[in-house]
Recover the amino acids of this structure.
């Protein structure tokens, strides 16, 4: 999962580089980013983020307790019910897209609103059908996760990103509004990656789908019961990006919404690679341990996963914090993306960087609750934290603070949410202790200072010498410096005898596939 999401984040950054170079940061890119808020709003209103989180524990419970026929019956009913609900919402959203455009961009000045709102509605209508693919794909992915199949779901985001890239490079050349090519590419990529490819994998599992609408089955009722708190909640992880872009409209400035999008995209990279991938991978195991009553394994898996995330994300957070300007300049500044755009975006990235480890911890903690079939408490805590974020954000607007204050409000809220989740889950799980996380965080911070100094120092030297105007060469060099700093971090943590270094060792073993001995063929296990 880490490898597939890493590829997805790399493609996501490549996507943003292409968009930035093709369109810069302008009213057109702002309209494109606002347009995506309408389908995102739809996604959150009908609990899209909780669908797979509610489905996996229930499906796993039936699957791992010798009730497979019931498991597939639940799969069919939930899929059909959600398909009908989502279709109705999509049609309504397409009808009222002009009204919703004003909702997602409430702070636009009247002159800008007249030009931008019609573009928002137009592109939103193009991308809204993609939500059908995301909802149904979430159920398909949840089923594959329950069967311990992770490769195919990992392809979904990559195909989605490739679709947007093709939209930027190819489709945009044939459209009256060129930037709408991104929306067409997103919709096509969503259906290919979330519906078409997973269906082929489901056929290999001999999935037993049939058209049935069984609202009375206990398993179906449990899925929607677990989803219910999310429908009525505004949990920070789910709505943060939506509120972030909408509130950014109050700060004014051409391209500011795009600046927030670019900075948030870079912050989301470690969140996806480490936080979400480990949460997705650990979730089925946690759900299975709970279903089987093995809470000792549940506690061990949870703490170990959280310690690994802390170990991996602290050095990345420090690099993003201390080198935000250089990173933005190297990745985005080219063609239509100017030095002014870099100066606008870099402070936002630095403010986001403060919360990186906490953003990466929260998806695992959320799923730790979902695995024990408790969706109410984490959503309540997430909603409370959303309230804190909105208070901080609105205060920043009224106080006329710089835009980075909005990004900092997000980081502070993420820290508060993790503190609340870790404090309350110990009451749900006896003998669960997060004390080991503090030791890991302390040693990781010490080691990160050394690796960050190496990264910053080499970067300054090379920047002074100059690398020329080859954008992709500069990005490759930046990536290479990052790898060097991670190796420095690895050796420092190894010297500190941190057990988490085993993560790097496991990754290295997977990458460096052992060659078979010359005198005997390799076994299937060796190949694996």
């Amino acid at each position: 999962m880490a490898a597939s999401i890493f590829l997805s984040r790399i493609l996501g950054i490549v996507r943003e580089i292409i968009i930035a170079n093709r369109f810069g940061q302008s009213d057109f890119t702002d309209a494109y980013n606002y347009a995506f808020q309408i389908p995102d709003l739809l996604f959150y209103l009908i609990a899209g983020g909780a669908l797979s989180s509610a489905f996996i524990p229930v499906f796993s419970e039936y699957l791992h307790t010798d009730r497979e026929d019931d498991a597939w019956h639940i799969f069919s009913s939930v899929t059909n019910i959600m398909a009908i609900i989502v279709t109705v919402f999509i049609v309504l959203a397409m009808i009222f897209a002009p009204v919703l455009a004003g909702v997602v961009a409430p702070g636009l000045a009247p002159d800008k609103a007249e030009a931008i709102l019609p573009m928002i509605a137009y592109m939103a209508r193009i991308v809204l059908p993609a939500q059908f693919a995301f909802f149904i794909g979430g159920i398909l992915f949840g089923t594959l996760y329950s069967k311990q199949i992770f490769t195919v779901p990992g392809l979904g985001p990559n195909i989605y990103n490739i679709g947007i890239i093709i939209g930027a490079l190819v489709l945009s050349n044939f459209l009256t509004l060129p930037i709408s090519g991104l929306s067409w590419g997103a919709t096509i990529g969503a259906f290919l990656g979330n519906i078409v490819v997973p269906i082929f994998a489901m056929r290999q599992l001999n999935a037993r789908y049939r058209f049935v609408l069984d609202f009375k089955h206990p398993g179906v009722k449990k899925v929607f019961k677990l989803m219910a708190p999310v429908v009525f909640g505004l949990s920070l992880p789910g709505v943060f990006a939506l509120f972030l872009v909408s509130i950014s409209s109050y700060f004014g400035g051409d391209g500011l919404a795009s600046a927030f999008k670019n900075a948030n995209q870079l912050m989301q990279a470690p969140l996806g690679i480490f936080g979400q991938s480990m949460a997705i991978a650990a979730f089925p195991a946690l759900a299975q341990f709970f279903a089987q009553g093995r809470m000792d394994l549940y506690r061990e898996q949870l703490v170990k996963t959280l310690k690994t995330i802390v170990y991996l994300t602290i050095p990345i957070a420090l690099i993003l914090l201390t080198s935000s300007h250089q990173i933005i300049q190297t990745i985005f500044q080219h063609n239509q993306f100017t030095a002014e755009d870099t100066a606008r975006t870099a402070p936002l990235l630095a403010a986001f960087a403060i919360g990186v480890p906490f953003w990466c911890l929260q998806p695992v903690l959320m799923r730790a609750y979902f695995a024990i079939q408790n969706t109410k408490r984490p959503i309540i805590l997430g909603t409370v934290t959303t309230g804190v974020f909105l208070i901080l954000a609105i205060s920043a607007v009224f106080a006329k603070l710089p835009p980075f204050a909005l990004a900092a409000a997000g980081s502070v809220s993420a820290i508060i949410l993790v503190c609340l989740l870790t404090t309350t889950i110990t009451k749900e799980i006896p003998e669960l202790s997060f004390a080991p996380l503090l030791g890991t965080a302390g040693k990781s911070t010490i080691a990160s200072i050394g690796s960050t100094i190496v990264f910053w120092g080499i970067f300054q030297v090379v920047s002074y010498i100059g690398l020329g105007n080859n954008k992709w060469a500069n990005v490759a060099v930046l990536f290479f410096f990052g790898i060097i700093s991670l190796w420095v971090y690895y050796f420092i943590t190894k010297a500190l005898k941190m057990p988490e270094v085993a993560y790097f060792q496991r990754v290295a073993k997977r990458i460096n596939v052992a060659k078979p001995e010359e005198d005997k063929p390799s076994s299937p296990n060796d190949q694996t």
Notes: The CA atoms of residues 287 and 371 lie 4 Å apart.
